[in-house]
Amino acid sequence: MCSQKNRKKVAIETLLAQAGNHNDGDSRNSVSTPIYLSSNFRHRDLEEIETFDEKTQYAYSRLATPTRRVLETTLAKLEEGKHAFALTSGMAAIQLVFSLFKSGDHIISLDDLYGGTFRYFDYLEKQYGLTFSKWNGQEIAQLEALVQPQTRCIWIETPSNPTMKEVDIAQIAQTIHEKRPDILIAVDNTFYTPIYQKPLVLGADIVVHSATKYLSGHNDLLGGVVVAKDDEVGEELSFNFKTTGANLDPFDSWLLLRSLKTLPIRMRAHTENAQKVAQYLEDEPAVEKVLYPGKGGMISFYVKEHEKVAPLFKRLQIISFAESLGGVESLLTIPYLQTHPDMPEAERLRLGITENLLRLSVGLENATDLIADLKQAFA
Ligand SMILES: *Cc1c(COP(=O)(O)O)cnc(C)c1O
Questions:
Q1: Ligand 1 centroid vs 368 CA: distance in angstroms?
Q2: Which GO biological-process labels does this protein carry (predicted)?
Q3: Which of 171, 241, 252, 280 is the most exposed place for a label (fewest CB within 10 A)?
């Protein structure tokens, strides 16, 4: 947990490149933040305990570690929120947000979600008595009609996974908050990252990330992030976070902090590559339809003939047939079987998650090589 300090606002590239440098003297002026592998911290005397401030001091690593604090301070600034939390996975981050709700509360979510989020919501409904309504992301009036007195949260993923639907966060936040400022607007910002979209600035209350994806960006760690816009929600999350304890360990905190430094340059390179690959897929005769929102590194596409899918996976030489996304290595997945099998078949098909839909996470290899790899695999 961390609180945002009041420092002069700089551009995102500067903020991230300098993350952890010029910090408050914890680290003997090292330019790179050290990893503190300590589960606990010594106290000077009894007086220190009596005046202990969780926001600036250390006692026990579930509460705070110096490395995670630098990371969380950076994340809060990055999403322009007040409180940030670094957790062990994206799902742990989503679970932390849901620690705000209780049995009987009503949640409205977009219908097309990450498969694990869908599974978690299903579990909450069955085991914990939360109720959910699904919105297709089209008419804002339909969203308003779903609001009930017990509605506590609207859960948005944009662009959605895997069908790349986009919704207007600002319009949703404005419309809902006008009548119901108590309803929390929560956005899973994993796909676009704050480089392309800052949900809190657009009016949302909470942002979550699977930091496993673009924020870490190297296919080498699992992590999750929650950022809250204001103190009230932030303080409650902070209490729940230290009470439940899915906090990111010092080594992964360091890795994630290191990765954030190159996030802006990586996102631009992912977009450049993805635009080229999407253009090739548009022209590829074996491809029926391409779903690409124009920015970011994620492309979904339909293969015309199902018989072509298995050979495609088998023949790829550079792109890996693997789950996950957002890293430097390009990955191809089949959501129908890999990320969304827990969604009922009828629901998958209704959303367009068919056996012919593939999802490509375009990495940072040379685009010409990626296109050649796909071309030879389709041939
Ligand atoms: C991967 C992912 C998650 C879950 O994150 P984990 O780090 O795998 O737990 C949540 N939302 C989206 C959009 C994802 O892609």
A1: 29
A2: transsulfuration
A3: 171
Q: Strand, helix or coil at 70?
A: helix
Q: How confident is the model at residue 342 (pLDDT cuts 50, 70, 90)?
A: confident
For residues 179-195, give the mean pLDDT: 98
271, 373: one domain:
yes
Q: Is any ligand 1 atom within 6 A of the Cβ of residue 105?
A: no
Instruction: Supply 346's token pair.
Output: 């009828």
- Helix H, strand E, coil C: the string for 179-232 is HCCCCEEEEECCCCHHHHCCCCCCCCCEEEEECCCCCCCCCCCCCEEEEECCHH
Residues 6+ apart with CB under 8 A from 81: 4, 200, 207, 227, 228, 229, 234
| pLDDT at res. 2 | 44
What residues are annotated to the active site?
62, 114, 188, 213
Which of 211, 151, 235, 146 minimizes the C-alpha distance to 185?
Answer: 151
Distances in Å between the Cα of 311 and the Cα atoms of 47, 92, 308, 374, 376 are 69, 36, 6, 11, 11
Structure tokens at 5: 């300090």
Whether residue 214 sits in one domain with residue 278: no
Q: Give the CA distances from residue 151 to residues 27, 113, 187, in Å, rounded to whole numbers and listed in that order.
A: 45, 19, 16
CA of 247 to the centre of ligand 1 (A): 16
Q: How confident is the model at residue 359 (pLDDT cuts 50, 70, 90)?
A: very high
The CA distance from 219 to 75, in Å, is 19
pTM, whole model, 2 decimals? 0.94
Could you read off the pLDDT of 59-71 as tens digits, one per residue?
999 999 999 999 9
Q: For residue 322, give its domain range.
A: 264-378
